[in-house]
Specification:
4-stranded antiparallel beta sheet, 0% helix, 46% strand, binds zinc ion
């Protein structure tokens, strides 16, 4: 069972439902996740939806 998030798809040029294909086990919001558009099936790496106020590396 995959998580679904509404993300902007660069292929569809609209916001679509995206499946999260790969998600890091640790909740590090610096990490990227692999999303797949449920409309065009295009996969793309995007950052999580957390605000990037924390710049600790
Ligand atoms: Zn798409």
């Amino acid at each position: 069972m995959n998580d679904i998030e509404i993300r902007f798809c660069e292929n569809c040029m609209v916001r679509t439902k995206h499946e999260i294909v790969i998600q890091p086990e640790l909740l590090t919001y610096k990490r990227k996740r692999l999303y797949r558009c449920t409309v065009c099936k295009k996969e793309s790496w995007k950052r999580g939806l957390r605000p990037s106020s924390e710049a600790v590396y």
